[in-house]
Amino acid sequence: MTAIHSPGGWRKYRRRLAAARAALLILLVLVLIVPVAWTVLASIDIKPEIATWPPGWTSSPSTDNYREVMTSVPGFPRVLMTSISLSVVTTGLTIWAAFFAAYALARWRFRGRRIAVQSFLVLASMPAMAYVIPLSDITRRLALRDTFGGVALAAAATYVPLAIYILYGYLIRVPAALEEMARLEGASLPRTLWSIILPAAAPGLGATAVLVFVLNWNLFLVPTALTLNHVKTIPVALSDFYTYERELEWSNAAAALVVSLLPVTAIVVLAHRVLERLSLGPTHENP
Amino acid sequence: MHTHRQRILLFLPLAALLVPFLFWPAVFGLLSSFTTYAPAQAHGRFVGFYNYATALQNPDLRLAFRNVAVLLTTAVPAELFIGAVVAYALREPFRGRGLLRVCLLMPWLLSPIATGVMWHFLYGHAGMLDWNLAWLRLPPQPSPLGIPGRALLAVGVTEIWRKAPLAGFLLLPGVLTVPTAHWEQAVLDGASLAMQFRHVLLPWVRPLLLTVALLLIGDTLGTFDSVLMMTGGGPGSETLTPALYSFQQAFKTYNWPFAVTSAWLIVGATLLVGLGYVFVVRTEEEL
Q1: Which of A48, B67, B85, B113 is a plausible cystine mate for B131, CB 3.0–4.6 Å?
Q2: CATH domain A69-276 topology
Q3: What burial class does residue A171 get, using C-beta atoms within 10 Å of its C-beta: 0-12 exposed, 13-18 middle, 19+ buried?
Q4: In this predicted model, what pLDDT tens digit does every residue of B180-227 receive, in sequence order?
Q5: B34 assigned to some structural domain
Q6: Domain, as residue range, for B140
Q7: Cα separation of B287 and B276, whole Å?
Q8: Substitution target from B34, B109, B266 for chain A, most A beta carbons within 10 A
Q9: Residues 108 to 167 of B: which have CB under 8 A from any A CB?
Q10: CATH number assigned to the domain comprising residue B108
Q11: Total structural domains within chain B
């Protein structure tokens, strides 16, 4: 039929396929890494030199930009601390609320459950812009505007639907038999949740937490709409000094970008095992 | 298996987040889009569909919706396709696959704000484009972000760079559930790559693909922070998006009714897509 069926054709086919795959993947890595590497180089003052041929690089690496970002940009260390604590608190809130709700959904058989779970996904796909403008007015009325708590609660509400959708997929696969036994032994609901469900769903909780943390770390709209200048996160600060201080050098911005990228990269590298098995929604059986 | 009271308790944290910080602002926004309400003034007057009629006649907003429609029909399918190809290429284990999977998350780890700042400079003077042109002994070019007719393309490319690898990362676990025998059988039958995609891959990853598509569409409908940093909507209004328009109306020109109305047009679009999603997956098996 084809070359595959001729003697040795199978091996040749495999080799060609492997070569094509290697080429594709090398291209992919270049496309992914080069822009980021370019930024890292700019942040240590290694910049492209295009006046000469062949084009090269200036070679006077220095860490001045990092020093400058940390000291002369007003309050950058504080911005960094705010971002870290806000992301941690928000992620905690999100996972806490999503875990209970997803568990209740997974153990409650009712007509329309499917629609309920899917509507959480639809809610998760809703851009925050849809409700953030009235939200800024509401938080002002609740005296939550420009407060840490207000931003944390609003940001948690932004990503809790996504967290529920993902956690539901994990919790529905935790067999109910163990819980049933614990209940017969007289264990209370909190006790069951803590010592049976939580360990069983730990990989899912971990992966979801990392995902939500990164989303919160990068969230711009909610903190910018809900704060004036008391609670400033990294994306807000980045957009600020880019909008108001146009004279800011690319190399300074690059240093700020690299600083903003480091914590999430560290977390993702540490958590890559649970992230790799992240499944969006329920796993599917044979089609 | 839980009592009614337990269920209420389990859903309570979720309700405490969603009701005041998502549902109420969304409903409040919907109601106020039929009035002249603005936070600064005491009373709003009911005006029916006046705001919607005005908004839909506004040339900037129409252009913004056209732009997002262009992104939805070009960038989103490209992201899904590239994601599927990447996931396909990564389906067989090889040395360094784990590392590559983490690398796939790299563009997504940068916040949209940071991505915007980064690409603004990469496209800009003495950036990556100019450096490559210099190799060909060509003079530096002005940033495509400032050129009418090219700016939206440049924005689209950035969006694809940011989201296609993420789509690949999310699709990979689905691709890995396809039994190896299916692939081998397809190859022995002489199936072309396109046929393998269509008849082996698609049936297995269809639900996951739909989920990822929904999230990408929602994200694209809300496209705003990266554009804010790259072009601010310019040149002219060529890269304006509805979310950016709404943001500017709310927080720059303080035209509240207009901002809320255009935000609700985004909600309408999202809900329409969401309904389509629910309808399409209705035929899938019970969750």
Answers
A1: A48
A2: MetI-like fold (1.10.3720)
A3: buried
A4: 888 888 888 888 888 888 888 888 888 899 999 999 999 999 999 899
A5: no
A6: 49-281
A7: 18
A8: B109
A9: 108-114, 117-119, 121-122, 124, 126-128, 130-131, 133-135, 137, 140, 161, 165
A10: 1.10.3720.10
A11: 1
